[in-house]
Write a structure and sequence with these properties.
two-stranded antiparallel ribbon, 4 helices, Rossmann fold, 6-stranded parallel sheet, alpha/beta, 24% helix
């Protein structure tokens, strides 16, 4: 599949609202249905998968513009970027052979969003219809301009993603 054609769905919400847990459930459910799912996680604080003293770290320190670490069944790319890529740039640059991309941590992007809301956090919603909000997921129903799904019903959220972004039918 051409990367530019892979649909992006952002899972957004306040800190500790359950975004990662929902993405895990959706990956399991969509994969069980035969879809290839990729994820993109944004970390505004930065991260490091390359550790001081390791060969790959030494290659990068020596001036390599990119380092690929490969083993049977897995590969990772380490490269410096000119800035903070947006979701479409990340998709187009790095994601291949996926049917859908679920993103976490990109609150201000223009792509369709599912917001996770938990009543115990007592927080204002992050998104409205003008933010390309397509659904709410939470522990208690919320009156909104978009459908609400129960936190424990990842299958229903997966159904919505299939209908809207994957041609409406299971791939099995």
């Amino acid at each position: 599949m051409i990367a530019a054609m892979i649909p992006l769905v952002s899972i957004v919400g306040k800190s500790n609202s359950g975004k990662t847990t929902l993405i895990e459930k959706l990956v399991v459910e969509l994969t069980r249905r035969g879809h290839r799912v990729a994820t993109i996680k944004h970390n505004r604080h930065g991260f490091d998968i390359d550790h001081e003293g390791k060969d790959s770290w030494r290659h990068k320190q020596a001036g390599a513009v990119a380092v690929v670490v490969a083993s049977p069944g897995r590969a990772a790319l380490i490269e410096d970027t000119p800035g903070d890529y947006n979701l479409a740039e990340l998709r187009d640059r790095y994601i291949r052979d996926a049917d859908v991309i679920l993103a976490e941590g990109f609150k201000k992007n223009p792509h369709p969003k599912v917001e996770v809301c938990r009543t115990e956090l007592r927080a204002e919603r992050l998104c409205g219809a003008g933010d390309n909000l397509i659904a709410l997921v939470g522990d208690r129903p919320i009156a909104a301009e978009v459908p609400w799904f129960d936190w424990n019903d990842a299958a229903a959220v997966a159904d919505m993603i299939e209908r809207r972004f994957l041609g409406g039918k299971e791939r099995k």
